[in-house]
Amino acid sequence: MFARVDPQTELSWTGNAMGARAVHRNVLSPGSGRTTALYSEESMAGPLLVLFYDSHKLDASLAHWLEAVTLAAERRSA
């Protein structure tokens, strides 16, 4: 479910699965020249979540997301 949609500024969503709640927030801001900076953060909470998904996995997932967004943006601007 989208939690916040501000065109060209922010896209955030939330979700629930197996007793866990996740929030993913993406904030865009103008960079230098014709670039855009993307700030992305994610959090998860739930009683049994630590048994399956630790902070290292969350960090790796976020890094993968940022890499995918970067590749898509580079392809589009080429």
Describe this structure as you would to a colleague:
With 78 residues, the protein is of the alpha+beta class. It has one domain (2-77). 35% of the residues lie in helices and 44% in strands. The chain has helices at residues 49-52, 55-77, and strands at 2-6, 10-17, 20-30, 36-45. Strands 1-2-3-4 form a four-stranded antiparallel sheet, with helices on one face. It starts with a strand and ends with a helix.
Q: Using only CA atoms, what is the Rg?
A: 15 Å
For the largest sheet, list the strands in their spatial order.
1-2-3-4
* Whole-number count of domains: 1
The overall average pLDDT, rounded, is 89
Major β-sheet annotation: 4 strands, antiparallel
Query: From the helix content, strand content and strand pairing, which structural class follows?
Result: alpha+beta
- Strand tally, please? 4
> Helical region count?
2
Distance between the termini: 32 Å
Order of helix and strand elements from N to C terminus: EEEEHH
Q: What portion of residues belong to β-strands?
A: 35-45%
Low-confidence stretches: none
Morphology call: elongated
Helix content: 25-40%
Provide tags for this entry.
78 residues; four-stranded antiparallel β-sheet; 4 strands
Task: Chart the SSEs and their pairings.
Elements (H helix, E strand, L loop, with lengths): L1 E5 L3 E8 L2 E11 L5 E10 L3 H4 L2 H23 L1
Antiparallel strand pairs: 1-2, 2-3, 3-4
Put the structure in a nutshell.
The chain is of the alpha+beta class and 78 residues long.
